[in-house]
């Protein structure tokens, strides 16, 4: 039945919102009253558009329950009901509609075994500073204070990415998160960066929350009495959250772990098929819990940086029947609003939430749960009947948690004693343009070019060409002063330069592999280079090395040349053979790569099997800092536009004799040019 006033919500929105805000201000304060009023009226508009009194009443009941769960006092709810009861559409009943007063209908709906809970998810790959951990704790405590029921679940990668991990190997992270009150976390791939033994030792000593992975089987130790990860890692855990039983299943990453295994880090585990793992533990838990939540770190490293619309989210391919909610990580995406994935033939959905990466946000998901009579019966089990989601920024506006700050203070002192994190070594001389790690073209980037050039020209390396994986460069150079701490953000991994000799055929094979990987990721290059130029054909006519198999390659590297400025200053132009020399299949070339891909990480099999490689021990971080000091010293008159003092001090006056970077130093120049052949459309 359509409402008799289908345009009423639009006509009365402003007046209704103002009435609600005015009535609620005394209970909530002006700012929060406006926010809550806007949410409530928006909910009404959706209900009116649906043309259903029952839907209207149910949605309103769920919204009021969400209010109550967020700590809104009952008096505010009663005030809102009073305002809404005067709304013309409510006063003027629809023919054949219910005649029970609004308040009575709401009390009936709210009494139908509905309960509220808040779930916090920190979807982050690497927390870069100690400060972020203290802010995370503050936000978590603020949310818990406004909810009768709450769970804080983390989607993995507690480790890596900062000097604190390099120095203390995970101790500080686990201690801080334990004190902050984290309830559970899935194991991320970076938890294994220092090996399984280190992960076990840190978990065993410091973690006061369960770490989960249902899709791993850990090997038995040589000594049967020896404890290890098999004794610490759980496939699932169950929480009784003030009467709501929540089963939490962890799904660890395996696609990225393959690269780590090939990189020389034997993990002592093997994977279980993801679908089989989910089905097994859903069958086990479903009859005994109200909700099943999967906390997931599934996905490909190469998907990092894609948008939520572009990424291929493996969580959506899991068997979802019986799964109420997935809190995802690893992909570095934000899903706001959350995705709804159908999980059966009866119109039920699984909610999928990703809250970004690098602890930029804490995702708050408020849910209303209808507690069913029999959780073993799909028709009578508990279900989420309403939810709201908000990404809360983790920034300097949020105060530190003093307890966690006190805990982390000794670590901070030790780090600053050994490393001058605030030391400035270079200056990005642009107010508007930072030095980026990914270029809009999908080809080489300025920061990638700088890194590869620093590897190629390092004293003792002096290679003809250099290559590094794009994902080893984790952040941009922001405008203004560049500190040592920012350099750790760019290079969180302790990678070093490895030198080897490759034949021309091996160079071709390596760059063909780069092209194939890049083609799978929207033709965004998965490597950064120096000294070599090529067309990265992501779709086109490519040589077939094995015509006898069914695979026909459509991605490859073409027109591979060595030298500088091979395109004559036009990034989209052809290579000029007069400027550079072609790579010859029978030639032998000195190549610089990072030690991770030299060992086969990220699938670089050609580099893995090479027997001439030598690890120089020179870190990429140090090589880049030395290179930047050599390329371009700031002129005496360059003003530091970030200076807080109103005296226009120069860079030299503030920071001394340091390098200046602008868009002219190793810019995007087409050394890697994405190409689509045969009239294909990108």
Properties at a glance:
Purple Acid Phosphatase, chain A, domain 2; alpha/beta; 682 residues; disordered N terminus; 5'-nucleotidase,  domain 2; six-stranded mixed beta sheet
Question: What would you say this structure looks like, in words?
Answer:
The structure is a single chain. The protein has 682 residues and is an alpha/beta fold. The chain folds into three domains: 103 residues, no CATH class; 297 residues, Purple Acid Phosphatase, chain A, domain 2 (4-Layer Sandwich); 257 residues, 5'-Nucleotidase, C-terminal domain (5'-nucleotidase,  domain 2, Alpha-Beta Complex), CATH 3.90.780.10. It is built from 21 helices and 26 strands. The strands form six sheets. A six-stranded mixed β-sheet has the order 4-3-2-1-13-14, covered by helices on one side. Strands 6-7-9-10-12-11 form a six-stranded mixed β-sheet, with helices on one face. A hairpin with a 2-residue loop joins strand 6 and strand 7. Helix 15 crosses helix 20. It is globular, with a radius of gyration of 28 Å. It starts with 7 loop residues before the first helix and ends in a 6-residue tail after the last strand.
């Amino acid at each position: 039945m359509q409402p008799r006033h289908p345009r009423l919500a639009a006509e009365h929105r402003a007046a209704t919102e103002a009435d609600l805000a005015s009535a609620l201000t005394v209970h909530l304060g002006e700012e929060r009253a406006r926010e809550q009023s806007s949410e409530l009226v928006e909910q009404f508009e959706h209900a009116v558009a649906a043309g259903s009194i029952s839907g209207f009443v149910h949605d309103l009941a769920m919204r009021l329950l969400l209010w109550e769960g967020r700590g809104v006092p009952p008096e505010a709810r009663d005030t809102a009901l009073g305002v809404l009861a005067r709304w013309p559409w409510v006063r003027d009943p629809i023919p054949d509609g219910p005649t029970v007063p609004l308040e009575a209908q709401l009390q009936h709906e709210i009494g139908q075994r509905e309960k509220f809970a808040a779930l916090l998810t920190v979807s982050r790959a690497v927390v870069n500073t100690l400060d972020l951990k203290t802010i995370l704790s503050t936000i978590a405590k603020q949310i818990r204070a406004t909810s009768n029921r709450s769970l804080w679940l983390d989607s993995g990668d507690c480790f890596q990415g900062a000097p604190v991990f390099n120095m203390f190997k995970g101790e500080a992270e686990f201690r801080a998160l334990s004190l902050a009150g984290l309830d559970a976390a899935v194991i991320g791939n970076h938890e294994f960066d220092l090996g399984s033994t280190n992960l076990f030792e840190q978990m065993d000593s410091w973690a006061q929350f369960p770490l989960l992975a249902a899709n791993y089987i850990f090997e038995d130790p040589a000594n049967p009495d020896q404890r290890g990860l098999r004794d610490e890692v759980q496939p699932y855990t169950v929480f009784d959250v003030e009467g709501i039983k929540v089963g939490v299943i962890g799904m660890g990453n395996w696609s990225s772990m393959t690269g780590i295994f090939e990189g020389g880090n034997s993990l002592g585990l093997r994977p279980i098929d993801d679908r089989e793992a989910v089905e097994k533990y859903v069958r086990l838990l479903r009859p005994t819990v109200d909700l099943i939540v999967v906390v997931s770190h599934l996905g490909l490293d190469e998907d990092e940086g894609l948008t939520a619309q572009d990424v291929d989210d493996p969580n959506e391919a899991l068997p979802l029947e019986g799964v109420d909610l997935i809190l995802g990580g690893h992909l570095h995406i934000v899903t706001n609003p959350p995705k709804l994935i159908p999980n059966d033939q009866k119109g039920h959905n699984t909610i999928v939430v990703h809250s970004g990466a690098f602890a930029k946000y804490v995702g708050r998901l408020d849910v209303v749960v209808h507690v069913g009579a029999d959780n073993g019966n799909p028709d009578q089990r508990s279900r989420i009947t309403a939810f709201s989601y908000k990404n809360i920024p983790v920034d300097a506006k949020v105060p530190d948690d003093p307890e966690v700050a006190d805990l982390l203070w000794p670590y901070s002192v030790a780090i600053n004693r050994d490393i001058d994190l605030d030391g400035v070594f270079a200056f990005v001389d642009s107010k508007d343009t930072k030095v980026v790690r990914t270029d809009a073209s999908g080809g080489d980037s300025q920061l990638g070019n700088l890194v590869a050039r620093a590897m190629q020209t390092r004293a003792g390396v002096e290679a003809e060409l250099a290559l590094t994986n794009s994902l080893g460069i984790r952040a941009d150079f922001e405008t203004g002063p560049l500190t040592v701490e920012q350099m750790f953000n760019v290079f969180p991994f302790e990678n070093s330069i490895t030198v080897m000799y490759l034949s021309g055929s091996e160079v071709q094979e390596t760059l063909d592999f780069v092209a194939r990987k890049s083609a799978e990721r929207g033709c965004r290059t998965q490597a950064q280079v120096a000294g070599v130029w090529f067309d990265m054909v992501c779709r086109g006519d490519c040589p077939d090395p094995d015509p006898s198999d069914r695979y026909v390659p459509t991605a490859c590297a073409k027109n591979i040349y060595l030298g500088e400025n091979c395109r004559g200053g036009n990034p989209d132009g052809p290579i000029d053979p007069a400027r550079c020399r072609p790579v010859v299949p029978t030639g032998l070339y000195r190549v610089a790569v990072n030690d991770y891909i030299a060992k086969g990480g990220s699938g670089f099999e050609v580099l893995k099997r090479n027997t001439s490689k030598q690890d120089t021990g020179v870190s990429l971080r140090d090589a880049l800092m030395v290179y930047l000091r050599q390329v371009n010293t700031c002129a005496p008159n360059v003003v530091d536009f970030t200076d807080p003092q109103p005296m226009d001090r120069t860079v030299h006056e503030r920071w001394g004799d340091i390098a200046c970077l602008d868009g002219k130093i190793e810019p995007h120049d087409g050394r890697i040019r994405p190409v689509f052949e045969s009239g294909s459309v990108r």
